[in-house]
Structures
1.
Amino acid sequence: MNDLPYELLSAILQEAAELNIQQGPRYTYGLSQAPEPLQTAPMQHVVRGQLSPDTLRWTAVENVRQVCRQWHDWAAEYALENLYISRWRGSERWMQSRTLAMIRTNPSSVAVYRDPHHSLKQMLQLFEANPALALCVRRLWFDGYYGAETTAMIFRILRLCNNIDYVTLPWTALRYGNVDDWSRLLGRNEQHRSISSLELLAVDLKQSQIYHAANQVDKKPLNSPRVNFSGLKRLKIFGHSNFMPLTDDDLFAIAQSAANLQEIHITGTASVTTDGIEALADSSNETLEIIEHSPLTANGFEHPDPTPLRSRKDHLCRKILRCPRLRNLSLSLPTLCEDLFSNDFVKWSGEMQIRTSTVCGRHPLSLKTSPKVQIQFWRILDAARSLTASREREGVQLDIEIFVDGWIFEPRRFLVHGNLDVPIATSQGAWPSEESPSSKGPYGQTGLYGKDEGPYVSVSEVMFRDGLEKQYVRL
């Protein structure tokens, strides 16, 4: 088999590994919590959890690694290509029963304590002892390690993984990592190779972690010109934190060198506004293909970011038009105007979801109260339809959705989606005269997000305008 072309040999070994995964165990098993003294609650044999994909891959090629050197190298690349290193969460117990019969008749267990950072330390030891294994890693995801001590270990691991492309880090890595750590990760290393995708995940921390003396440090690596993001193609920031959150200032610093971004995903955070998105879009306007900005606000994801733009001279609608390669857009804009859909020469495709509160140059309340502003909004829908038709004539599918308060406007289909329970009650069932089921919710097509409302329904745009005139509905 070793005389076969490497591509064919690799395909055969991969097929064998996939079959081993399908036929092997995918879950770990354990016992429910042991009864407390003077209690008679029975202990149960339960499924503890699903094995992680990297564990399944490592186990699936255990026999392949032992055949010969060539197969060992292939198996290492297959098993270590994507790694997920997670902090130990606790709540684990070890069985003391030796057989399944004893588990059924007299189950017993003891509580287990492990070092929460055990997986991180073991991975560091493995890669330091076997540098060749570290070269097999293409993607690394670190989950649950937010302190300065663990961040130092994370960067020691990354220093050994010279072929890595995708990295998911805790947001604190931008505080605890120094200039050398970040400059090496972004291309100033022996291979002059930068990661192409960076994800920063933020969570709220416990007070004990926030006030821990070792965590009260910010090395400010973004202030150095050596930290250069020009090799980065994808940037994702997800989540919000109560401790040293990422802000627009961080995005301004990244934007100074991030001139080749193709994707920007910033969701679920209240500390980053449209100002930071604007800076990144300006820096990478020639290469940008995807923008996703869904800020976390008090009213939910369907509402736009209320933060005003720094400059009113050139609003964000025109800045988006300077991104000729844009194909997917999910953005919260404080205001929206016809300019965004007036250029028939854009190459947009895919899905565009825009959350807004009013028309450019108008107060948010004016869209609810002023017929003149509402007429401007209908013109925006017409402009969106015109752009969609123009792209369809070129053989390109473009779907545009505009979110205003609790309503989702779908111009191409002349539909408005929303919860009509209140309007139906207000009109005593007289409006609407016709409605259709809708699969959409306050956050696009993913259903309801943290809401107790019933399913959305859709009505025609003409029907919606009629309900607006009769004051059954409000924008």
2.
Amino acid sequence: MRETVLKWGSQRTTWLYVLLAYPVIDFVMRKILPIPVVVSSLWDKALLIILLLFTFVAFLGSNRVMPGIKHLFGAFFVLGIALTVTDMTNWQASFEGFRSVYQYIIAFLIGFYLLKSVEDLDKLLKALVIVGFITGLYGVAQVVLGVKTPEAWVQEGETITTRAFSFVTSPNVLGSYMALVVPVAVGLFVKASSLKERALWAIVTLTTLLALLLTGSRGAWFALAFGMFVCFFIWKKRVAGYLVLAGIIGVTALFFVPESVPMVGTVKNRIFTLFTSDYFEASSQGGRIGRWGKAYDQMRVEPLFGVGLGHYGGAVAARRFGTTYTDSYLFKSLAEYGLIGLIMLIGLIISMFRYSAKAILKLQQSPHFFPALGLFGGLIAVATHNLAENIFEVPFMTLYFWLFGGFLCALFADQTQTKRW
């Protein structure tokens, strides 16, 4: 038994699978098992340290060369350190703000150096999807059982009182998680060679898609639609055009659906409410649009470098200074980093996507193409959702984003080096 445990503990994949089970483990440790608060709060940090040790060993023994994105990473880290040390008056808030961003971005390095092959990526994607399926199924069960959504996530005047939120903080977080998982599940379904496998991934796809719909998260719906469009555009541009046409026809038809129709009527209400004058007025006064405007005003105080990390619009600023959430990681970053930091962050993400897309295009004749393409679409969806939500404030979501981005960039590096030699 001891030898088995040591053997498992010495393998990098063991700890990667633990990381992919993050939402379930965190929920069990915080809500079910009688574990001290300190342990339940620090276990993920300990896991990251273990993975970083494996990453350091892999780095020393690897010939894999990181592409040009390393320069952007270095510059972005230097900026973060500079912003942290320039406000010594609020040192604790600055340090906590720095940690809340960069502690999770290092998952990119973990993904880049710990991935061994594209076959490894397939296995890790299956783990991601299975954990996502469990999470989504829990959310679906909440709606079926009539579990009331906490009032903080129900807008005034809304008739919806049961939005799926599972055990991942909120309906919007669950929506973003499902938007990441659904395209990967679709990719695994297309790749499957046996009827049994296809049936499994079809069930997983439909369950996670249903969970996404039941979250009522409009931002996640739109983000998934955009992510899927990108997938189809990479695969076959003509099909992507048909998809846009089908979307236009579908939205038009949705307008005429009575709100009394189960689920479809709810989706209609959630979407078309966005275009009413009442929603715009309420959102401008105390909702998203108003918060985005306030974040923009904060940036105007220090347009180049912002008001400082952990100083506005997120969890750290809410604890330290009592500021409200911006409901947009984009605007939060604009206020805290200023224009220079925001441009660097966007450039970093675009650079990661560029290398990832190149890696996926080289897999077109491979059976691994569709799962990798689905992952790319899921990452696009998560990044897009951050325009309207603080998704990167959720540890496991930002870890997944940078980890899998690192995996795809590792594939690109291997393809480039193989071609070179």
3.
Amino acid sequence: MACAGCGTGASGKPNGCKSNGGCDTGGCNRLNVFDWLANIPLGDSLAPFDIIEVSFNNGSRKDFFRNATKQFFEKGEMVAVEGVSGFDVGMVNLTGELVKLQMKKRRVEDTPEVKKLLRRASTDDMNRMSENKAREKEALIKARAIARNLGLEMKLTEVEIQADGRKATFFYTADDRVDFRELIKIYASEFKVKVEMRQIGARQEAGKVGGIGSCGRELCCSTWLSDFKSVNTTAARYQNLSINQAKLSGQCGRLKCCLNYELDTYLDALKDFPEDADTLETAAGTASLQKRDIFKNLMWYSFDNSNKLYPLTITRVKEIRHLNKQGNKPEELKAVELVATKPKEIDLGFVDVVGQISLRSLEKTSQKRKQKGKEKEKEKEKPKQAAPQNQGNQPKQGGNQQKQPQQAKQPQQGGSQGQGQQKPKQPQQAPQQKQHHQKQSQQRHEPKGPGNNNPPQANRPPQQNQQKEKPNTPQQQPKPKPKPPRPPQGNNK
């Protein structure tokens, strides 16, 4: 993949990666190559090869040009070259001695007719090229509509406009021959350029469009594959693949090119297998060959009346074949017993020092936190529930109500305080019950005042005893206004 900031600067060199044309990741353009002879110096008597390979339209098309300027160009630089009645702008793809090998591979001869390299691309050249390249998408849409209106059975794949805007090349695919003489006239009048029609195959079309293959990687024809070899179904048979057109065909609709990658390896492995062993004659009947397993060196046979497969070794097949030539038939095939066993796991003595973290431990901690939260909520609700329960027990807890200063100002608490103080002095107050009852009645009818808020002096000694017991009693929240206490039973008598 290319770097995120890859681009072209003002001088024609890569702007983002700062490699000055040495980007070898393969993501900057299609069919990228690596010049592994660039850093090897030549002898003094040898001059560098004067032909340079230049790629156009992000590597979809490549051509060779003669460097008549005698300047040194690095890979990735943008240069201006000769075009059809004008000039074109491309990227330097390969220089040096490797260009000779590329020309020999493509059968291009070093003749004076090779076009020349003019100069390094200037800012004006780059701006003009970008303007004309922006017209390619609209031109492709219009060209397809015109071809459809004329009823031509062809598919336009790509439109490439020259950098100076004087020529446009239309790449198309078609099964049969197409008469596009009238089409060229319409294109020339519509786009105001010189038109060139070039027919390509389905594999070249997939390389220009690009895409992701079934393997999850970018298509080979759009990244590195330049030569297309014919692929037959026999390649799938040698590799024991099921003849399924949907699985064996690529995005171009033809058989996948990768079927030829491992074909040589399979052919070398199949040399040890006998070729004339398609059928074996036995006393039980005729056994037919179903498949060959080159990894286990086994040949699988089955009888005509059953679907059971019998794996045989190569030596056993050769023995049976030798007996059949002599006119003898063995009683049995002597198939190999295959036991599907899992490989034993080898203990390497590794000890996990860090320890294992299970989900149960995490669940326990979460449960503990929930329980603690519930307990805190219950503790907060307990004082609220204790308030209505203590209203019936006010005679016993009357002394404890004096702990809060707000309750001391209520005139009704005086009776409750006196009632709470009588309990420890019940045996001594028997002769003085009438006097105590009169004091309580006076306190009820007295108006509020700053002097009447304090309890009487006679009741203060028991109040001191209650203050000593204060740490042992639990704290209580402010209670609602209690009802007036009932008179003691002794007064009723």
4.
Amino acid sequence: MLTMTLMFGYIYIMLNLLGCESGLLMVSMWYTSFDLSTQFDRIAPSPVVHVRGLCESVVEGDLVEALEKFGNICYVMMMPFKRQALVEFEAMESADQCVTCGVNEAVYIAGQQAFFNYSTSKRITRPTNADDPSSGNKVLLLSIQNPLYPITTDVLYTVCNPIGNVLRIVIFKRNGIQAMVEYPFWSQKAKSALNGADIYAGCCTLKIEYARPTRLNVLRNDNDSWDYTKPFLVRRERGKGRQRQAILGEHPSSYSDNGYGSHCPLLPLPSNNRYKRSSPHDAQEVVAYPLPQTSSYMGHASSSSVAMVSGLHPAKMNCTRIFNLFCLYGNIEKVKFMKSVPGTALVEMGDEYAVDRAITHLNSIKVFSKRLNVCVSKQHAVIPSQVFELEDGSSSYKDFAMTRNNRFSSVGQASKNIIQPPAAVLHFYNVPPCITEDELQRLCTEHDVPGFIKFKVFDAKPSSKTISGLFEFDNKTHAVEVLTVLNHHQIRIPSKYCVLLQRE
């Protein structure tokens, strides 16, 4: 059984790397039919069902619509980037029917077949009072995952108000971007329609829970907080929207002015029949959400382009290695270790949105057995004061503003960057074609970082002076450590080349 599981896992990984969607679906179906009966024996029945194989555009409302025929649903937890979800039923019998039906016949959610199994959890953890409709769950907690573009009160109002009348919005940016949105009544409809949706296509994904407060206290109206009940509120003119497969289209309109792309149409408002439209008469159900204006992104008084990073290994981390890790999410201007707080550094990035991306993807990851804590600093610039020597002999301060290794220095460069969370696979490029797998493995050993377990070189033109490919490691922590140490490492065989590693 273990051998078969490993075989299916290997096939799945290879197809995923090659981008074979149909192949992935076939492997998922084979593996499900082969393994589910055994899993039922190993996992005890639970009212919580684990759902896999969801499409990228699925929202909570689609799950409820497809699965409520098995019984009343208490709670749904979306895992959008994994294309999975947890669904808690009121009765054990409902969960039994759901899992059994999924084995015997195809169950489709948002037009794609899904796969079911019992969860190891007996109950989905959620904030206090989330079960009680009378407790005033009219405030939603929004976590914005993969925030490639600015998130302001204008953006969230545009997204949330069509579902119901929004009273107040508060955005906070300490450990990633989160926001609270207050409605006048219980906000189940908004949660169901938006949980798991993308604000912009492929990014700014909403993960929504009920918040603990029952009312928001807003002190001022700006990009980070707004009270729409104030009589002196002056609503801004909002641009006209178009129609596309994401709530606000491909990107904010302000980015198109700088060459990041053209305006894109918007997604229809989630509803029970949005996957069944077949006639042009249904076009009136499409809601055109307006794009935010350029001016609404300027002047984030409470934001900063400086990130504070703590939990750094005192002997193995320095300014260059911080640059190697953080440059995947934005330009790095300066890095400075704080003498008064050991294991802590300030990283000045190109803008506050680069800081948001770094927080989203790097906060809480482990590097050299230490867990990083990445948050927004109260400082708005890194000042080269109190420079001292780190344990490895390097300087505690370094200016990277002029380095050619920054990857967001132009519109062309920025458009080529694929923002990814940490993973066990690294993409390497700009490597001399004469270098061998053994030499790359020896490079890892010499720098005291984990070696890779699989190695793949992409086909290149005969005239190409460099090669690229993939490294696979035992886990993502090993991959992060290798990237931190070897990113931009110079290989002098036979001449000056530079190894660039980035997460695949």
